[in-house]
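Re: your question from the hallway

Yes, I did run it. Sequences:
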Amino acid sequence: MAESYDVIVIGAGPGGVAAAVRASQLGAKTALVEAVHWGGFCLNRACVPTKLFAAAVERRRGLAAAARLGLRDVAGEIDPGALFGLKDELVSYFAMGTEGLLKAKKVSLLAGRGRLAGPGRVAVGESLHEAKAVILAVGAAWARPDFPGADLEAVVHPARLLEEAKIPASALLLGAGPWALEWAQFLSACGCRVTVAARERGLLPGFDPEIGQRLRAAWKNDPVTFLAGCRVIRASRNPEGGLAVTLSVKDREETRAFERVIHFERRPALEDLGLESVGLKDLRGNEQLQTAVPGIFAVGDATGCFPDLSHGSTAMGILAAENALGAARTYDPRVVPRIAFTSPQAASVGLGEEEAEEAGYDVVTGTAAVAATPMAMIQGAAHGVVKVVGDKRYGELLGVHALAPFATEIIGAGALALQMEATLEELARAALPHPTIAESLAEAAREALGWAIYLP
Amino acid sequence: MAIEIAVPKLGLTMEEAVLVAWKAAPGARVRKEEIVLVLETDKVTYEMPSPGEGLLHPLVPAGSRIAVGEVVGFLAADAAELARLALEKPGAAVTGEEAAAVAPAAAAATPSAAPPSSRIKASPAARAIARAHGIDLAALTGSGPAGRIVRADVMRALEEPRPAPAAPGGSALTVLEEIPIVGVRRAIFRNMHASLSSQAQITLHTETSAEALLRLRRKRKEAGAPVSYNAFFVQAIARALRRHPRINASVEGEVIRVWREIHVGVAMDFGNGLFVPKVRHADAKTLEEIEAELQRLAAAGRAGRLTLDELSLGTFTLTNLGAWGIDRFTPIVNPPESAILGVGRIEEKPVAVAGEVRIEARTALSLTFDHRIIDGAAGAAFLQTVSRFVEEPALML
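Structure:
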C-alpha cells in the first residue's frame, strides 16, 4: 500500500545515508531505499576495505623500519587470508552500525530496489510510495573496459578481487588514480608482481602534478612497474593460464602475461531507475544539486562527478536534503579533498598550480620539504612535501597539496582553510603544533609569502 | 593624588568641544606640557598640553562631545594609583577608530572596546578583495553561514554596475573622496548658509586708483618697515567705519545693534579651511600695529594655534583675492556681521583723465552688505569713503 513521505532517498551509500539523516533531523518524514548493502559501495567494497589494506601495508613498512627505533626481531609478512577475514568482520560491523544509526535517526528503511515511478512516486519492489522530494544516491556500476578481450574472466574489477579473497601472482592495474595505487601497493606487499598502466603521463591525475611526481620518486625502489602513456590493445587467454595482454607503451606494442587485469571504471548506475518516467536522461544537476526535474535531487557518484569521493558524496547528501526541504545552498566541489592512502599518503584540495594558472589567477606557490622537519625524521619519512597554491592579487589560498605521512589528515586543515576562504597570511600565521608533519602547512604558506622561517 | 585633565574654556563663547584624539595610550607616561589630547570646537582645533606629569587614565573615548570643565581623564602618579583609578573610575581603555564608534556614555560605563555587534563577519579572502577595491563590507549582505560575507558577495558587489570613473556622457557619479563636514568645515558650512539664508545681501562694485597705495608700500619698504596690502585695507576699513558707524552693526532679535568697537576680521586660508581672525580695535591702531597683529595671527593660524577669542566677535570682514589674480567678486557676509569688503588684484589699466589716456594701477573694491539694515545709499557712501582712502591714504589721517 502506498505510503507517503516528505523525502525518499534511494541508495544507502555515504551520500544517501547523510541525506536521509539530515532530512530526518530537519523534521521530514524520510525513507531510505537500499537494494544490497547498508553503507553502500564505500563501506562494503571500496574505502573501508582498501583503507584496511593500506593500514596493513603501512604497518608492515613501519615494522621493517622498527630496528631503527630500537625494536629488535620484529618483522611481518601479510597474511591476506586473515586480512580478508578481518575485512568481512569490520564491514559487517559497520553496516550494522549504519543500519542502527538510521533507525536511531528515525529514517524508515525500505529494503529493495528503488526506482522512480513518475513524479513524486518511488516504487520499491511491488510497493509504491509517494514523496514530496526524491534524492537519488544510487552510486555507480562497474563498466567493462572497451578493449577486445575485456570480457574474459580474468579481467576483473576490485570488488571481484575482494570476493575472490586471493592474491594473484601477477596483475596489470589499469589506471593510476588513488584507488589503483592503493591496490597496487597492497598487492605488491602481498607478493604480487604488479604493473600499473596509466593513460596519463603521471601518477595521481587530478592532483597537483608535483604530488604525483614525488610519489613516483618515493616509490622508485618499490617492485611496482609503472607504464605511463599506456593503453591496452587487446587481451587473450594464455595457453598456460592467465592473460596475454598487448599494450601500447609510448606508441610501441608489447605483449606481457598477467594472471589478472584489474580495471576501476565505473559509471552512474542509472539502469532500471525509472528515469524515463519523469523525463530524465541523466542525473547531472545544478549547483544546488537539483536535477532537470524539480523535486528530484541527485548526489554522489550517480551524478557522474567522479572521482569517487565518499566525503564529497556526504557533503552533497547533506546539502541535497536541506535544499529538498526548501534551502538554496550551493555545493562547492573545489573544497572537497582528493586523497590517496599510498605510502606516503597523498592529498590535494582546491586548485593545483596549473589549474590555477588556467583559471586566470596570478599564481604564487610555496612548498615546505617535509623530510627536513623533526617529526618526519622521527617517523623515518624520507620523502614528502606540502605545497600551497595562492593568488598574488588578494593573497587568497587556492589549493593545498601534500605528499607526507598523515597527509590525509593534514589536508582537512587545508579543506577548512579553503572553505573559510583563508588567505595565505592566515595559514602562514597559524600556530600549528610542533613537532608534527602538519606544521609544514604554515611553513609552505610562509614560503609563498617570501618569508619561510626554516628554509636555509 | 591623581591629576585631573579637564576641558579648558578656549574662548568666551565656547561651551563644548569634541575630544578628537588622545595623544597618549592608556597607561602611558605623559610629561607636563606634552600634548595629551586634541580638542575641536566649531572654530578651532586645539592641542591641549598636559596639566602635569603622570600615567594616563582616559575616561572618555576619542570622538566624545565634552562640556567645558568636564574631567576627561586622570594622570596617575604611579602604577598602583593607575590600577586604583581603573577600578574606581573605569574609563575608556580604547583609542582611535574603535573609540570613535562607541557612544560616550556607553564607553564611560564599560571598561572596554566596541560592542560585539559592530564586528563584521567576513571571510579573510572577502576582506582582502574588498580592501583592494575599496568596498565597504558594512554595505554588503553576507550569504555565508550566519550571514558571513564571503568571497562571492564581494565579487557580486564588484560586478554590480558601478559608474565608470570619468566615463564621458555617463550620468552617475563616483566618489573620489569623502570629506566629513565637521569642525571648521562645519562652521564654514553653517555660516555660509546662514549668511545667505538670513540676510538680504547686495554687492556694490567700484574701482579705484592704487597708485598711492603702491607708493606707500614702496616707501615703507625702503624705510625697512614693509606693510601688507591687507594691513592697509584693514586700516582704511576701520577708519571708514568710524565715519559710517551704521555699517558696523548686527541684527540681534528685533533690534539692530551698532557696535562701539571696530574689530576687523581678515579671511585667511591655511589649507585646512577658512579662518577669520580679528584685528581688535583696528580703528585705534596704527598701520604698523595692524601689520604686526596680522603677522602674529597668520603665524598662529599656520601653526593651528588660533584661539577661539581671536576668531570670535568681529564686526566687519576683509577678504582679498588679489593674490589669486581675481579682478572682482561678490563676497558674502560673515554673520552676525553685516558687511564685508572684497578686494581684487591691482592691475595697470588705461584710464581717461582730463581728455587724456593714462596708464594707472587700479584695483576693484566690492562691498557686500545686509540690505535689510543698510540702505543702498549708506552702503555706497561707505564704499566711496574706503575708495577715497585707498586713492588718497592721507585722507585717513
